[in-house]
């Protein structure tokens, strides 16, 4: 391995594991944000590089054509706005990068530039922006639009949007005909030259966009071969444009399932992903949400139809077409658990072996940890990862915990500075 792995944690400002074992006894406590502020403090102490706060503004109706399944599964709703939560996290932590999700289709550029710069000031240079283009027509209707643009058009607009926003951060006046506004040079300036830019493009248009703009890329190609192909594709795009491929870190989303022994972890995994539990409904609703396809119309004991199309996350749909080609949707959801890049299960040592082997093959940069959507995260899961897996990675030199007050990895400095080594 070269540089130590970058580790982040992806989370939703939603109900926690309210109906799970070890839910903590206060199922409504998520609403005031204290669970997530405490979580951020814990991540900060453990040396995790950043927390990424997901966002969306709709109650999806993708599965079954109405909101019923969504409220049963609590995948994307109910949900609070993560931007005020990010400010609270900034005050409670010292080093942790804080990445917020904001859409180029839903926020006016000047408004987004001010919000991100303000969060960077409040966090003393620890802000990041997870750039999304959005795809839900219900989200468009929340801001007075009838529907959102087609997939590639959204990315074409996003390129121009980034030109406008970065001009604002540089204190320039920029008029853009597409957005029909002047960005004021009076907006606050970031502590960093710009907040850390994160993106998750998986399609060709998305990868082109990510290669041009992103400092961090979050990806979900399934399996080591696909992970390597994705990272090589990003790096070749950057190199072809004359950039340094090492300027961008590619992270893979994973959900480690841990036990004191491999057998204990495997039994836990079998319980979690059985199609006899409510987790199965949660996973198929989640798949409908991110693909913008009603999976209730498909036979779950057959492959995903090859002629299925979407204006949503095309790379996710293509992945499930490939995975179910010689099996079925039910079998894949039961065997592969979450929509993640690696199936990590075992003792901390076993899972560290799996992560190390994958990175040796991929040449990768790190992982984004995730434990389902809403309704599933618990303090116990945090402890298993941060007190079990992370120290194991550290003991192998795969992860470098910061030394408070200075030392090999100082706790001070901006998010961008630590990420790039500048």
Automatic annotation (TrEMBL):
<dbReference type="GO" id="GO:0004497">
    <property type="term" value="F:monooxygenase activity"/>
</dbReference>
<dbReference type="Pfam" id="PF00296">
    <property type="entry name" value="Bac_luciferase"/>
</dbReference>
<feature type="binding site">
    <location>
        <position position="101"/>
    </location>
    <ligand>
        <name>FMN</name>
    </ligand>
</feature>
<dbReference type="InterPro" id="IPR036661">
    <property type="entry name" value="Luciferase-like_sf"/>
</dbReference>
<feature type="binding site">
    <location>
        <position position="55"/>
    </location>
    <ligand>
        <name>FMN</name>
    </ligand>
</feature>
<keyword id="KW-0560">Oxidoreductase</keyword>
<comment type="similarity">
    <text>Belongs to the NtaA/SnaA/DszA monooxygenase family.</text>
</comment>
<feature type="binding site">
    <location>
        <position position="151"/>
    </location>
    <ligand>
        <name>FMN</name>
    </ligand>
</feature>
<feature type="binding site">
    <location>
        <position position="203"/>
    </location>
    <ligand>
        <name>FMN</name>
    </ligand>
</feature>
<dbReference type="InterPro" id="IPR011251">
    <property type="entry name" value="Luciferase-like_dom"/>
</dbReference>
<protein>
    <submittedName>
        <fullName>LLM class flavin-dependent oxidoreductase</fullName>
    </submittedName>
</protein>
<dbReference type="GO" id="GO:0016705">
    <property type="term" value="F:oxidoreductase activity, acting on paired donors, with incorporation or reduction of molecular oxygen"/>
</dbReference>
<feature type="domain" description="Luciferase-like">
    <location>
        <begin position="27"/>
        <end position="365"/>
    </location>
</feature>
<keyword id="KW-0503">Monooxygenase</keyword>
<keyword id="KW-0285">Flavoprotein</keyword>
<dbReference type="InterPro" id="IPR016215">
    <property type="entry name" value="NTA_MOA"/>
</dbReference>
<feature type="binding site">
    <location>
        <position position="155"/>
    </location>
    <ligand>
        <name>FMN</name>
    </ligand>
</feature>
<dbReference type="InterPro" id="IPR051260">
    <property type="entry name" value="Diverse_substr_monoxygenases"/>
</dbReference>
<keyword id="KW-0288">FMN</keyword>
């Amino acid at each position: 391995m070269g540089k130590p792995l970058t580790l982040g944690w992806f989370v939703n400002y939603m109900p926690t594991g309210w109906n799970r074992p070890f839910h903590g006894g206060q199922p409504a406590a998520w609403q005031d944000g204290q669970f997530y502020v405490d979580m951020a403090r814990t991540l900060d102490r453990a040396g995790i590089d950043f927390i990424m706060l997901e966002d969306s503004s709709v109650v999806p109706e993708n599965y079954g054509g109405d909101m019923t399944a969504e409220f049963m599964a609590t995948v994307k709703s109910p949900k609070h706005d993560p931007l005020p939560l990010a400010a609270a996290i900034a005050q409670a932590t010292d080093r942790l990068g804080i990445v917020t999700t904001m859409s180029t289709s839903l926020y006016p550029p000047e408004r987004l530039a001010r919000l991100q710069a303000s969060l960077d000031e409040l966090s003393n240079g620890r802000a990041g922006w997870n750039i999304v283009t959005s795809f839900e027509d219900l989200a468009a209707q929340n801001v007075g639009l009838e529907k959102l643009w087609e997939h590639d058009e959204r990315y074409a607009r996003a390129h121009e949007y980034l030109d406008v926003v970065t001009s604002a951060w540089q204190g320039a006046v920029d008029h853009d005909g597409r957005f029909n506004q002047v960005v004021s040079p009076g907006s606050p300036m970031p502590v960093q030259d710009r907040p850390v830019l994160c993106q998750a493009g998986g399609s060709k248009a998305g990868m082109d966009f990510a290669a041009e703009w992103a400092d961090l890329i979050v990806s979900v190609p399934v399996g080591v071969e696909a992970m390597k192909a994705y990272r090589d594709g990003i790096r070749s795009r950057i190199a072809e444009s004359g950039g340094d491929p090492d300027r961008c870190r590619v992270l893979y989303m994973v959900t480690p399932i841990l036990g004191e022994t491999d057998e204990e972890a495997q039994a836990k995994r079998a319980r979690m992903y059985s199609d006899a539990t409510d987790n199965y409904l949660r996973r198929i609703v989640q798949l409908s949400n991110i693909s913008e396809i009603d999976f209730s119309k498909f036979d779950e004991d057959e492959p995903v139809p090859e002629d299925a199309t979407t204006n949503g996350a095309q790379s996710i749909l293509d992945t499930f077409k490939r995975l179910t080609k010689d099996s079925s949707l039910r079998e894949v959801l039961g065997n592969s658990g979450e929509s993640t890049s690696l199936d990590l299960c075992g003792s901390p040592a076993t899972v560290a072996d799996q992560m190390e082997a994958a990175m040796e093959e991929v040449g990768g940069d790190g992982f984004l940890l995730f434990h389902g959507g809403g309704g599933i995260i618990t303090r116990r899961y945090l402890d298993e990862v941060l007190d079990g897996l992370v120290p194991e990675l550290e003991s192998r030199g795969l992860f470098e915990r910061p030394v408070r007050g200075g030392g090999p990895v100082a706790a001070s400095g901006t998010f961008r500075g630590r990420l790039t080594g500048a």
